Amino acid sequence: MKKIKCAVLGATGVVGQNFLRLLVDHPYFELTAICASEARKGLMLATVKEQIKGGIPESFEDMLFDPIDIDLLLSKGVQVVFSALPSDVAGDIETEAAEKGLKVFSNAGAHRMDENVPILIPELNYKHLDLVKNQNTEGFIVTNANCTTTGLTLSLLPIRQFGIKRLIVASYQAISGAGYPGLSAVDIISNVIPYIKNEEPKLRAECTKICGDFQGSIKPVDWEVYAHCVRVQTIIGHLISVHAEVEQDVDHDAVAAAMQSVESPNILKDLPTAPHPPVVFTEEYDRPQPRYDIELGWPERAKGMAAKIGRLEVEKNTIRYITLSNNLVRGAAGGSVLNAELAAKKGLV
Ligand code: NAP
User: Fold this and answer.
1) How far is ligand 1, taken at its centre, from the CA of residue 14, in Å?
2) DSSP states of 70-138 as a string?
3) Which residues of the chain carry a pLDDT beneath 70?
4) pLDDT computed for residue 33 by the predictor
5) Is residue 177 lining ligand 1, measured as CB closer than 6 Å?
C-alpha cells in the first residue's frame, strides 16, 4: 500500500507529540508536515521541548514547522490532517481543510456536535463513519470524543447489552487532560478540583451521540447521564466511577463474563492501532490504577488504547465499576489514528 501523506496540526502539545510518536513507521501514513502556532514557523522540531517520553521522535527531528496554510499542505501532497489544536483555533481551520479536500481527524471539540460529523469510537460505532458522506465538502471531518467520554463509552461495550437506562458517573481526571503547561502547580498540588469547565455537559451530549442509532443520521440514545468531573493530581489516565442502571435485574457472574469477553468488531481486526481486546477486566481488589494500567493494549502499536475495568459490584438492576483509560492515547491521538486507519480501510482516504 502506498503511504498516505499526513500532517499534524498542534504538533508541539501533549496530544500533538503523541501523534508524532504514533506516526513513526506507521504502515499507512507518512508524516509530511507539522504545524503549530505562528511563532514556530521555520523552526526545527528538534527545538521543541519534549512533553511526553518519545514525543520528539529522532526520525522527525529535522522536520521544519510549516504555517497552518491549507493550500501549502495540499501542495505538499497531504491528504490526511491530524488536528491537536485548541478548540477555539480548530473550528475554522478544520472547516477550510475539509472544504478544500483534506480528511481531518480531530481531537478538538469544535465540530463534535455538528449534525454530520461523527464522534467515532469504532469499537462502539464504526458505522457512524458513513455520516461523512452527508458532509457537503470535498474532504471531511471526523472527531474523537472528549478524553473522559472516550473512557466512559468504551467501558459501556460489555454492558450495553443489558439495556442502559441511566448513568451516574464521577471522574478523577489527570492533569495532562488540560494540555501543556496546563494547571498551575499552586492550584493542583495537594489538591483536588471538583470542577472542569464545560466537561460535564460535553460528557452527556457526546456519550448519547456516540451510542446513538445510525440510519443515515444519528439518533442519540435517550439515557439519563449525570456526571461530576474532577481534576486530581495524576499525570496521565482518567479514572471514572460508573453507576449504571439497566432495564432488568442482572447477576454479577453474567456481567463479569461479559466484561471478560469483549471483542472488537471484525472490521477492526487488522488495523494497526486497534487494541485486542479493547477492554480488559480485572477482579483484583485495588485496580485499575493510573500508575500501573495506562499502557494497556496489544499489539505493541496499540499500547495505551485499551481501557481497564475493575471493582465490579452488581446489585439488582445496578452495575457499578471503576474504569481507567489513557487520555492522551486512547482519549486523543491514538483514537484519531485508529479512526483514520478505519477510514483508509474503507477507501474513504
Ligand atoms: P496543548 O498541549 O495546549 O497543545 C496545543 C497545541 O496547539 C500546541 O501545539 C500549540 O502550539 C498549538 N496552538 C495553540 N494556539 C495556536 C494557534 N493560535 N494557532 C496554531 N496553533 C496553536 O493542548 P493538548 O492537550 O495537546 O490538546 C490539543 C487538543 O486536543 C485540544 O483541542 C484538546 O481539547 C484536545 N484533547 C486533549 C486531550 C488531553 O488529554 N490533553 C484529550 C482529548 C482531546 P504552540 O506550542 O506553538 O503554542
Assistant:
1) 7
2) HHHHHHTT--EEEE---HHHHHHHHHHHHHTT-EEEE-SSTTTTSTT--B--HHHHGGGGGGGGGS-SS
3) none
4) 98
5) yes
